[in-house]
Amino acid sequence: MARDYYGLLGVDKDASDTDLKRAYRKLARTYHPDINPDEAAQAKFKEISAAYEVLSDPEKRRIVDLGGDPLESGGGGGFGGAAGFGGLGDVFEAFFGGGAASRGPIGRVRAGSDSLLRMRLDLTECATGVTKRVTVDTAVLCDRCQGRGTNGDSRPVACDTCDGRGEVQSVQRSLLGQVMTSRPCPTCRGVGEVIPDPCHQCGGDGRVRARREISVKIPAGVGEGMRVRLAAQGEVGPGGGPAGDLYVEVHEQAHDVFVRDGDDLHCHLRVPMVDAALGTTVSVEAILNGATDITIPAGTQPGATIVLRGYGMPQVRTGVRGDLHAHVEVVVPERLENQDIELLRTFKAQRDRDNAEVRSTQAQSGGGGLFSRLRETFTGR
Length: 381
Prior knowledge:
Blueprint: H1 5-9, H2 17-31, H3 39-55, H4 58-65, H5 87-96, E1 115-121, H6 123-128, E2 130-141, E3 157-158, E4 167-174, E5 177-184, E6 193-194, E7 207-218, E8 227-230, E9 246-252, E10 259-261, E11 264-272, H7 273-278, E12 280-286, E13 290-296, E14 305-308, E15 324-331, H8 338-350, H9 361-365, H10 370-379
């Protein structure tokens, strides 16, 4: 059963923080090892120190008020109390007598599990950050019994089947002698106590499922698969135990123009061959900068990359922004008017030094390195 932490300090359950501190100091003057070297006094000092530590912590105190024990270890010492033998002591005693090691009740008040929520965001929301209201369906504290699980002023009682131990033992005969095994009590499910008059709303569990809305703040710079943690917004534990955490996992939607690579952004520019030769300016609606002009220098070659520093995505922790990479594709017209043909022939005649030539494919593509990877990413070839 749970320890009486209030009784150890000699205070009432409605004692304030000041009352707790005053009671602890008074007892410490009597039982502190520097004042009272007696072994019994030292043991008493450890007990009152543990009680003050528990009751001065709001979350631990709430577990105590719900009938739990926040310092319950649940561990049992096997093989004559020598915990260092681990499971070996349990096996030895089970086969050759002495009884199976008891692990004690698991406690009715336990911590809740974490929850996961997936949120779809577009690239702009990932870049700027966003606050959204979301609906979650989790176990919450029962507002009728406040987690106690009991109806009215009734209280849990020790289980008659296991006498509060949380487990039952059985003995079987084998070639090696009597084998004693332990298993969780089927009546109390290992808790060690039962609720004769359970709460009519939660059925004694101390929690109910409910749908609620919460506000989630997503920081700027998040990306695919990143998770935002909301402390104590997950499942409330059995018996009204502390809630777990809620994790919001980001799923980034594909953008029509930009492809993200970490903190960098990539886009694909199709530039007519005349503009590539003479130079031009292309306007792009950047994610955080709005309408942005990208200057195409005269004589730009197919496959050239123009980098705009600081026009990419911000980093989550530092806010430092990556770069925008504009990959240029020079477009050659497939059909020409007669006058266009004559103009090009005149231009070619004036530049007789420009001739077609055969070059190594490996030298042109860089041996399948960055150029090839970008070509596959942005042209699908």
